[in-house]
Amino acid sequence: MGLYRELLKIVRRVSPATKLLVHGYAYAIPQRDGPWLGKGMEFRGLHPAYRPDLCRAIIAVMIDAFNARLALFAQQSNGDVIHVALREFASKGEWFDELHAREIATERFADAFDHAL
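The structure corresponding to this sequence follows.
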């Protein structure tokens, strides 16, 4: 969060009227040998292929916590930061890989950003 605060300071200094939009991701789905989530979970003994529900639940807790911090950051920014919640906009079958959603979900992401703007 410190880096987000530093980024906001820079934006305020360079362009005071600019709003910073932030999002805390959707509920990503760890995959076997996945470079972003899966391998790290496997290293810790949580293999997404054998314990998919547990792995998804852990990621959901992480995503929820990150979104809560971003929402608080936005709330404390005097209107300079807008938090866009994307958690519910991609379902289980709408993922290209473990971190990137397919076009159908990204269209909903874009709509959420459009609405925020």
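The helical segments are 2-14, 38-43, 52-75, 103-116.
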